[in-house]
Design brief:
Layout (H helix, E strand, L loop, with lengths): L1 H9 L8 H10 L10 H26 L5 H25 L10 H39 L6
């Protein structure tokens, strides 16, 4: 999303050249908000690039080094991603989806549903993983006498 934010802030994707711009132009056939400066989209993506990018790097470090805060970061990152997906599409749905190409099977099912669904499915699965790990840690702590109640 970094190149998208950059292209949107210095101009727009529709008038940009290059490989990255062509990828966003292709996605723009399914969702035209990605072609021009849509304040909601650019705001969400700006936050995604900065905050989620830093959280992702910190999460990689926490996983590799087996840090105690790994699941806190993982949950935070997943919630940020799910919130970003919600804020990308909910405002559009509320106004009748005028910028979404729902007439084309490929643009609707492949670009909008499948590709965006991945950004919901993976954080959902990682949240489930963190839930199970935290539950396991809690039960382990309960059985070794860590709970004083």
């Amino acid at each position: 999303e970094g190149p998208f934010v950059y292209l949107s802030l210095v101009g727009n994707v529709a008038n940009s050249d290059g490989l990255i711009a062509s990828l966003w132009k292709e996605y723009g056939k399914a969702d035209t908000r990605w072609l021009y400066l849509d304040p909601t989209i650019v705001s969400v993506e700006l936050l995604t690039v900065v905050l989620d990018g830093l959280l992702a790097l910190l999460l990689i470090y926490a996983i590799v080094k087996e840090k105690y805060y790994r699941h806190f970061i993982q949950i935070s990152l997943c919630v940020c991603e799910l919130y970003g997906c919600w804020m990308t599409f909910c405002p559009e749905w509320l106004v009748g989806s005028p910028n979404l190409n729902t007439n084309s099977w490929m643009y609707f099912w492949v670009y909008l549903v499948f590709f965006n669904g991945v950004w919901v499915l993976i954080p959902g699965l990682l949240l489930w993983q963190s839930w199970l790990e935290l539950k396991k840690m809690h039960h382990k702590g309960t059985y070794v006498g860590k709970k004083s109640w």
